[in-house]
């Protein structure tokens, strides 16, 4: 029990420096802008300093074409089914599935007959998405 | 239409360098280890190079105490309700709500009478969580 409390104290440490920016709480659908990444594939990005979270909705039968990028990516399925091809492996991903995509690993994602919803988080923030946002 | 196609080509560019590591597709509940962060607060971490995604389940009436850290954080609620205090503002966060937590911004999260599920993504990977993982 003491070990658990001490471990918790270590994990939940106090601030030792000043914040570099204020925190921000948002509702994804109402507070974030929307950009189209491909026909039927739309992202709402939340942009930080080291991180960019992209909340992506797929219409049925939509494709994020095969691509690769320097930014590391975590991919998380929230709703529906998405067929992911990652480094040559093809898998049907559902809520509760996730992927880690290191720099320059090629990947493609497509929805099937239903809509789907997933999160990508990039570090550093994905340059191509920042450029799309700047176009708005 | 052409502008859309060109923008898509730009977003979905090809690899110009070799991958630094293979990609990895996982089921969060069956493939990732579990660590206890506080009583009733358990994380399953997916660890990358620049990113660490932490899938966190709260039992009812559980608390992640007020804390701050150098790593930038994105917080995303998936299920249930979580009361977040961030930089002095208190908000009840539900599925569809998210927060951006810059370095050293103090925050605390607590569940109410129901369980809850949320994702944290840190960049760089949160050192204190890597240490908890190393203890396993």
Question: Explain this structure to me?
Answer:
Two copies of one chain form a homodimer. Chain A is α+β, with helices and mostly antiparallel strands. In chain A, 17% of the residues lie in helices and 48% in strands. The longest helix of chain A has 10 residues. The mean pLDDT of chain A is 93. Chain A has a single domain, classed as Jelly Rolls (Sandwich), CATH 2.60.120. Chain A has a six-stranded antiparallel β-sheet, with helices on one face. Chains A and B meet through helix 1, strand 1, strand 2, strand 5 and strand 6 of A and helix 1, strand 1, strand 2, strand 5 and strand 6 of B. Strand 9 of chain A pairs antiparallel with strand 1 of chain B, so a sheet runs across the interface.
Tally of domains of chain A: 1
Q: Biggest β-sheet of chain A: count, sense, barrel? A: 6 strands, antiparallel
Could you report the average pLDDT of chain A, rounded to the nearest whole number? 93
Fraction of residues of chain A in helices? Answer: 10-25%
User: Helix count of chain A, per DSSP?
Assistant: 3
State the name of the first-level CATH class of chain A. Mainly Beta
Strand order across the biggest sheet of chain A? Answer: 2-3-4-11-6-9
User: How many β-strand stretches of chain A?
Assistant: 11
CATH fold name of chain A? Jelly Rolls
Q: Largest interface by residue count?
A: A-B, 73 and 73 residues
Point out poorly predicted stretches of chain A: none
Can you tell me the CATH superfamily of chain A? Jelly Rolls
Q: If classified by CATH, what would the architecture of chain A be?
A: Sandwich
**Approximate strand percentage of chain A:** over 45%
């Amino acid at each position: 029990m003491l070990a658990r409390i001490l471990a918790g104290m270590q994990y939940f440490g106090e601030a030792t420096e000043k914040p570099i920016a204020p925190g921000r709480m948002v509702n994804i659908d109402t507070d974030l802008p929307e950009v189209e990444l491909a026909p039927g594939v739309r992202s709402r990005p939340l942009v930080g300093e080291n991180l960019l979270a992209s909340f992506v909705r797929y219409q049925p039968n939509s494709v994020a074409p095969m691509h690769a990028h320097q930014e590391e990516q975590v991919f998380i399925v929230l709703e529906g089914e998405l067929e992911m091809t990652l480094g040559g492996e093809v898998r049907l991903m559902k809520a509760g599935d996730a992927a880690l995509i290191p720099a320059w690993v090629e990947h493609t994602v497509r929805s099937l007959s239903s809509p789907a919803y997933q999160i990508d988080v990039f570090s550093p923030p994905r340059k191509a998405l920042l450029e799309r946002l700047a176009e708005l």
